[in-house]
Request: fold
Amino acid sequence: MNSHGCRPCFTLLCALFLLLLSGSGIAAPVVKIQDEYFTTDIAHYLDAYIDSSSQKTIEDIQQHELSRQFAPLTMEKALFGFVEGTVWLRMSVRNDNSFADRYTLLFKPISIERLHVYDSSRLAEPLYNFADSRAHSPLELSPGLLISLGRLEPGEQKTFYLEVQSAYPLNIEGKLYSVLSLGRQMPAENGFNTLIFGVLLSVALLSIACVLYSHERVFAWGAGHALSAIGYLRSAWGYPALLIFDELHYHGRSVYVYGVLTALTTLAVTFRVLKGTQTLKSFQPALWVIVSILILILLAQFFVNAQLSFYLFFAASSIGLLTSLAAVMPAYAAGHKNYLLLLLLSNAVQVLLITVNTLSLASDLSTLLLGEQMLGAVTALVALVNLIAMCLFFNDHREQRIAQELSEEFHQDIVDNQASLLSKLTHEIRTPMAGVLGMTELLRGSRLSDSQSEFADNIDRSAQELLHIIDDVTAFAHIQNGTLPIQNQSFGILEMLDELMLAFGPEAERKNIELVFFLEPGQPGYVEGDAVRTRHILSNLISNCIARQRDGEVFVKAAVEGEQLFVSVEDTGPGLSQAELDELFVDESRLTIVPQQGGIGLPLSKHIAEALGGDLHVESLLKEGTKYHLQLPIKISRRPPVTLLNIERLQNLQILLVDDNGTYCDVIERQVAHWGGQVESCLSGSEALALLRARQNIEEPFDVLLVDYSMPGMDGVQLLERIQVDENIADENLIIIMLSGLNSTPDMSELQQLGVRRLLQKPLSTKALQEILLEELQGQKDEQSASREQPVSSDTLATIRVLLAEDNEISSRVIERMLHRIGVSATLVSNGEEALSSIQREHFHLVLMDCEMPVMDGFEATELVRRWEEESGRQRTIVVALTAHLLEQLQDRIHAAGMDDQVSKPLRIHELQDLLRRWVPEYRSLQVL
Reply:
């Protein structure tokens, strides 16, 4: 084909060659018809003359001077390339047969703008006029133009002139047929072409059927490739183009448009077949660039001139096919898939066709050195090979998908089995732990010596640590299996902080650590989020801070901004080095490796936070402490708490806080300000005396005095003694509350003589402080609530009945003793069937229903209770699920069964009291704390 450099030189050589021959008078030989089945190529019998001005007429051409300028063509094919002007061709035909016959000229290609055929014997009107329109149908199966040359008598010789103009590469191919030869050879040629088109059309239809059956996009691109090949061959062979546009202006370049579409669809097939492979990841940027270039070239075909359109076509075809070949080769080398091998071969054959065509210096694909039939056969073969490759790809892809689905199902079965096993193991471990913790709590409430009390404290602390480890292992297993359940529920931030203070207070007190919790004023009371996971993360962070220091401070601060919960946990410990920070959190692939700092809890907390859609990070400096930052998504909850304290009476309450810890004072000030109260704080007893005197002088005394038991210099007891002997500040209405640690509990009888109403243990629970202040303001005796865990003797308490359905004897005994401690009687059953019978016989204020029991579990028993209540019209019985594990999948089952609430074993006395206060009005009316 013509290249950029060869085209001008080639045209110039043709012109010089024709000029040299024109002066010699040499003419092309005459076509001699010698038999009735005559056929011949006309290239060897043509004389040519190039009219660069395109102004000459047939009369001008027949003049003697111009006639002598015709020169014969000596090439195998009449290749003119791009010609600026008109090409005049002359051919002489003599009938040497003994009979007359009609003869027809088959002229290719039809990518021309003007073709006039003249008979020299009569020039008044051309034999054929092809200039104004394309009347051919796209369904026509005769390639090229069939031009009747009329009848030749025996011995008669005629000269024919062809006037040809084309803006596209002019490569003339034609054959002269007798009537019998045309009738015998044209059906064969048309039959072969029809076969090629039929094969390609069948490939396209089969590909479309595969798209409808499999919904696999690769077949759609394969159908596009086959249809583009049909249009490509029709245009190249001289058939009318299949594109719908103004053929007068665009007909000649249809072969280029279809060629670019073929390259594009080839790339699309390559894209789809290589999807997901490492090869595509490497080639994808380049492939997208090539595809973009080909699309631009395709659009440019309708706007650029003919020469540029020709060069762009070959550039696009070459680039597209070479890119596809370059992408498939390494993919096959890496995977050795059969469909990749077939694609590799088909792409290689197409690249070979382009290369041969380019090297042949042919200007149109209809003049390939391989020939038209070879071109059609190879194109159809490529389409068939591509279809087979796509089918193999789909089959391989489907097998991989089925294998993946089976693997996922198998993995899901393993996960389900692990979850079931984890549920059972958690239940089996936590049930005996409930007995250990419950008995320990009962033991600590009895009269013990100092050493016995220390032993009981150690047992309780060790059991709590073991439970914490169990929770960590449970969450870790969920993360490893990818089944970490996330639940959304309403919870109070302040209540959660209070619970954590109560849980970690003893350990912090033992290590002489001030544990301080603070919620920013003006925060929403209740939010919606995963309360269980949030508490788990905070427990890990607080536990780690307490474990890393002694004689310091742990400060927990919470705030809500928009729909984000921000919690910081800061200690005053030794801090962490950069190496320790690198080991603090590990990625998921190393989660099975226990880091040097923080155990499994900290990396686990980070993964849980990320699973919730939040973040956890840490800041630390050596000798300056460590600060953890937790961020979790939440929503503001409009749901009120189950029991809403009446804190209106606490507003404008005047409180004096005396504590040597400035951070603790600041936290209490802000928390009380959140209720609407007013707090003044001081760091020593002497300052407190001064403030008390000042308030008395202005007749605005304090309503409440919160005083720390242990302070340097003047301690709490000494301060109260000074207040008692000072007539100016002594006030019987002053509510004095002593704050102390677990390891420094003073004698309450001595404190009462100093006017102390209550003794609270630090860290101070905000909720507990509210309740106590409300009680004191209501005028209750301090003896009624000297301890939240003291039994209450009352006839009304004795009437409150609780049903406990628990199959574990130790756990059942522990819960029964706890209920007895707070003055409530309990009926014990060991399975759901017995629980159902008991509920149908007697009335119970509250039912504690274990979820997993023999004979009939708690879920089934509750469902039967609800059905019985509905059928008999009985009042609803409050049923609380009692579970020994923390798997949140139970939430749906608990709700579906009709249970009202849920608690986890091991139960503590204050949790039982909270349940009774929440669900039993008779118990709540007694104000039992």
